[in-house]
Write a structure and sequence with these properties.
Low-confidence stretches: none
Order of helices and strands: HHEEHHHHHHHH
Strand content: 5-15%
Number of helices: 10
Helix content: over 70%
Number of strands: 2
Number of domains: 1
Radius of gyration: 18 Å
Mean pLDDT: 90
Distance between the termini: 16 Å
């Protein structure tokens, strides 16, 4: 049991630290924009995959974001509106899988590539551009100058930020959809397109984020034994 726990402590430590830092006003807001970038990029990529286009993405200092996209068809609009929350959860899942497979380099490739794509093609607001540059320099510095152990810590921390925020933001959306469905963002858009209540979509997002977290636990040696 001691060996098992020692194999998992990085995950638990990173998740707890990321959760705490995410709630600190200034530092937390900076870190949480990572989740916003993946969320909005999910909308953008889905718009492109369904034959639409991307006009711009806005990343804000309060961690909110907006992706202006255009879709030709109803299904494209639905899939584009749906893609944001699952994208963050799936990315966290992918990152932990890559860490478990000792393929940390690919996490750096994904983060840096998405930062560059957003900087060059999509993001045009001042804060968004500054954040992308700072995050890009920070991530590239860890990749070029840190040893493999520190790189693994950084990758696990980024994955933990995405995991925690995918759950927290989906839960927040669920609360908003219950109290004021007209302010429920993606859930409200999906409700407009499908006539399915916003709270149902928000519950689906939240459930999927919990499912992703549950599956991530199976990547850990201890949890495989306990949960199987």
């Amino acid at each position: 049991m001691i060996d098992c726990l020692s194999a998992n402590w990085i995950f638990y430590a990173c998740f707890i630290v990321s959760a705490i830092l995410s709630l600190i006003p200034i530092v937390g807001k900076f870190l949480n924009v990572l989740n916003t970038m993946f969320h909005e990029s999910g909308h953008a990529v889905m718009a492109l995959l369904t034959g639409g286009g991307v006009m711009n993405i806005k990343l804000s200092a309060d961690t909110s974001g907006a992706a202006q996209t255009k879709s030709k068809y109803w299904l494209g609009k639905v899939l584009t509106s749906f893609a944001g929350y699952p994208c963050s959860a799936l990315t966290a899942w992918l990152f932990f899988w890559l860490i478990q497979k000792q393929m940390v380099n690919y996490i750096f490739y994904i983060i840096i590539s998405l930062l560059l794509i957003n900087l060059i093609l999509w993001v045009r607001n001042t804060f968004g551009i500054i954040w992308l540059i700072v995050m890009g320099v920070l991530t590239a510095s860890f990749y070029m100058y840190a040893n493999s152990k520190v790189q693994s810590y950084y990758a696990a921390f980024c994955a933990s930020i995405l995991l925690f925020q995918s759950i927290y933001s989906a839960f927040t959306l669920l609360i908003i959809s219950v109290k004021s469905s007209n302010k429920a963002g993606d859930a409200k858009n999906l409700s407009t397109f499908t006539y399915i209540p916003s709270v149902i979509w928000a519950l689906l997002f939240f459930s999927f984020s919990l499912f992703a977290a549950y599956r991530i636990l199976f990547l850990l040696p201890c949890a495989k034994f306990i949960l199987s």
